[in-house]
Fold Diaminopimelate decarboxylase.
Amino acid sequence: MSHFSCQNGALCAENLPLAAIADQFGTPTYVYSKAAISENYLSYALACRQNGRTAETALVCYSVKSNSNLAVLHLLSQLGSGFDIVSGGELLRVLAAGGDPRKIIFSGVGKTRDEMRLALSHGIACFNVESVSELHRLSSVASDMGVKASVSLRVNPNVDAKTHPYISTGLKENKFGVAFEDALSIYRTAAALPGLTVTGIDCHIGSQLLDDAPLLEALDKLIELIDVLAAEGIIIHHLDIGGGLGIDYESEAPVAVSDYLARLFAKIDAWRVAKHQGAPIKVLFEPGRSIVGNAGVLLTRIEYLKPGSEKNFAIVDAAMNDLMRPAMYQAWHGVQAVAPRAGTPTVWDVVGPVCESGDWLARARALCVEEGDLLAIMSAGAYGMTMSSNYNTRGRAAEVMVDGDTSHLIRQRETPEQLFALEKIIP
Ligand code: LLP
């Protein structure tokens, strides 16, 4: 169920009119629904329970990069979530939000020594290692600290995720993970390094996947490898299938989380019974978009209407610096009037004030609007605020979380002075 709906002619977040949020906090503002985030997380957690898993045998590690606001992380941590991080910065965010370090996994191709030390000092659960060089570095950092780092190799199963090339990550040509063919010898190296303990295997084949077939194909590859490793005495205790499930932006109809997890667990159970006397293996997930994507909108106000002979432009106060996805991936986001008007719609391109032709949020949308109207850019909860920038010295948008009929400011709008506070003029 969508938590953004029209009630008495006014678009609301849960039970709160978006217009009231604009009045109180201004625009542009990201607005998130607490209930939507919770439900989306619970759809994973409940599917794990329904397939016989406990908190010990399945863990959802929310992908922090999709939306890293402390309030979002705190909410998810209270619901029992773990976290998938890709930087020391994300680690500190999760800890500041009360996240449990023992439920943190660290992904990413370029971890620095400092980041490794920080993560080891907090006792995170596991490093998802992406290269041989990284294994050596991690082993030496851990040995220097007198500890052992738990590692999982991110294996590239070479399956086509059938998604946008910029967000597909499981093909040989991508920079991520180690090649499937090389994995065995790299695991041998890992097992022999003094600062490491091999605990897992992982993959992440891409994002905004609508079908689970590529994910299940990737699972088959990982299962095959786990058995090869077991025959060599390298025992894998957890299998991390990554994130990637898509959401409805327009009418994509992605596979339901419960269906995907039922198929995935059925495959794992059949394999464990056939080959491992039914001994369980812990399963990890790294979802981002499917938890927060449809739980947020970007609220913006129309500054000017600029009709033209070729195109009509609705110039709003949000821009590509606030929501990069359209400019970067030609991504489609729904646009809804916050107070829909009666009348004949006109076709508008919704664009921002930034000095780039690529600064658009939506193209060719039939809208019945006037200057000063509020618009909601839909499905903006994932990779919206986290990918925003200060281009054109524009302060980042405010962020608000709605709980029922109550709004909470969870990040203040940035002021211009804050944007140049770290800069200095030379003598
Ligand atoms: N795990 C790893 C290792 C990842 O690289 C990602 C996303 C995830 C998990 C979470 O994937 P999700 O469940 O959200 O699909 N900026 C792009 C998406 C980039 C995704 C990067 N990796 C966008 O706006 O569409």
About this structure: The chain has a mean pLDDT of 96. Residues 63, 66, 84, 107, 167, 204, 207-208, 242-244, 286-290, 325, 329, 382-383, 387 surround LLP (CB under 6 Å).
